[in-house]
Structures are given as C-alpha cells and as structure tokens.
C-alpha cells in the first residue's frame, strides 16, 4: 500500500492499549504504516521515546498521551499528523502543534454516540421519575399510577439541549423517536442549521424555564463555569430534570444540592464537581438524584470503536482524503 513506508508511533497509557487497539485493529493499522515501536509511549522523555520520535510521521494517541510540547516537536521533525483515538485533544495538543502545520484529528465523533445513548436512556428513565420511585419502593412505599401528573414520560415532553455539539446533535436525532419539543441554546448554532435539525433556538434562561428536561452538552471553558448556577436552577420548573454528561464544573454543585434536597427538581449526573464526589456527599444519597461514575462515554467493548475510527483516519490521511474528525486551531477554545 502507498502509506506502508509511513512510520507511526502509538502514544497512550499501556493499560488502555488492548481495549482501544485490540490485535485486529493493530493489524489493520500495520497494513498502512510501519510502527517504529511495538509498545506505546507514555513518556516522551525516555531514550526509547526519543528514538521513536525521531522517525515518527503519524502519532496515534489515546488516553494517557503526554503533552506534545515544544521539546517533543523538536524531537519529532518528521511528524505530520496526530490522530487521537479518544475525545478531546486539548490535554495533549496545543497551538504549537498547529503552528508546525501538523494535521490533528480526534475520534470525538465515535465517543459521542455512547454519551448520547446514555443521555437518551436517562431522559426516558428520569422522565418517569424512575429513580425516586425506585427509592420509595425500596423503602416500602410502592407507587404506581397512570395519572399524567404522577407518572410522566418523555412522550410530549420539552427537552432543552445546552450545546449543539456532536453529542448534542446525536441526542437531538435520537429524540426524534419521541414526540418531544426540543429547545437548543448554543451561540454557535445558526438559524439554518437549527431548521435542519428541527429545533427551536432560545436563550439559556428561556430554555431553563420551559424545559421538562435540561441536558448539558457544552464544553468546559472559563465562560461555561457554573453556567447552570443557583439562579438558573431556580428558573427550572418544579419537577424538571437536569442531566449532565459534559463536565461537572458547568453546574454549581452546592446550588444543585439545595434545589434537589428541596425535592423541587431531579438530577442525573455522570460528571460532578468535584469528581469523584467525597463519600457521604448529599448528591450520593438524595432519592431524586442519580450519580454514575463518568461512564457515559466509551466503555468496555465500545472503546475499540475509537481505535477503529483512528485507524480509518490514518487511512484517509495517507490517501489524501478529508478527515472526518479533523480538529482546527480555532476549535481548541471550544473543545470539551
């Protein structure tokens, strides 16, 4: 194959190697590149790493890749592409990488699907008040009713999506199977795109007031810290549900505790601030709050999709084709 003379190196935590890059995925990668080192690099300062970096043209990264700083770039004069088999690249790729003209790609598109699936599943369960009812049932207070007020559902609900990100858009698409009204707040979403998605764009305050379920899919940047603060939690209608699969810092934890402890709103949290929550934290014990340990993203058999996506990107890069997950310099400020 044309790219067979291209030299590549894997850079990630060795513990994630077999999950993200099982033998079949490595075999496919080796059909188009020559691996300079059979083992992944997790430290770019070692003699072994420096020897591999001197040859590398394509760096295939995943969780645990060290930062690609000026010293690493100096040690890798032939580097042409960084292909990340995971979501955000901003923890190991900086502006100096783009300044060198190096192409950057991310498998965020592949990682977004399980997050969206988790979100929609939680929308269904939370809309039915499943978590609070399960707690009551375990306490010997079984409740069952066909009353619209006591047994709500996602059918006919208004869902507010904060952030028309890859995940946010997948959630919107999946919700098409339900008779929901979808409101979106995203300063980067234009009117034409909103029409194509079949959603209404609204201000964040209006979204909080109107939605039965508010689901957060915005990036963690300084401007989004405590985006959902005490005031906006107060705007949410009684019985509303907050779902956060983005980053914990987007929600004011102390304020959320107060609103959930009062029983006014429910919450489903796959991310928290701090993360993990300390033992005994109120959010871990409130009957109307479901906290999961950051599992919405790729887990188990799902993680190989990230490796497959990255290898496909390497194939596209070597074939001179457009990359599906290409990351541009101006994306860094908005990445999760």
Automatic annotation (TrEMBL):
SUPFAM superfamilies for the chain: Formate/glycerate dehydrogenase catalytic domain-like, NAD(P)-binding Rossmann-fold domains
Pfam families, alphabetized: 2-Hacid_dh, 2-Hacid_dh_C
UniProt cross-references to Gene3D superfamilies, sorted A to Z: NAD(P)-binding Rossmann-like Domain
UniProt entry tagged with the keyword NAD: yes
Annotated keywords: NAD, Oxidoreductase
Stretches assigned to the D-isomer specific 2-hydroxyacid dehydrogenase NAD-binding domain: 123-296
Keyword ATP-binding: no
Domain D-isomer specific 2-hydroxyacid dehydrogenase catalytic: 42-327
PROSITE patterns: D_2_HYDROXYACID_DH_2, D_2_HYDROXYACID_DH_3
UniProt similarity note: Belongs to the D-isomer specific 2-hydroxyacid dehydrogenase family.
PANTHER family, sorted: 2-HYDROXYACID DEHYDROGENASE YGL185C-RELATED, 2-HYDROXYACID DEHYDROGENASE-RELATED
This protein's name: Hydroxyacid dehydrogenase
Taxonomic source organism: Streptomyces pathocidini
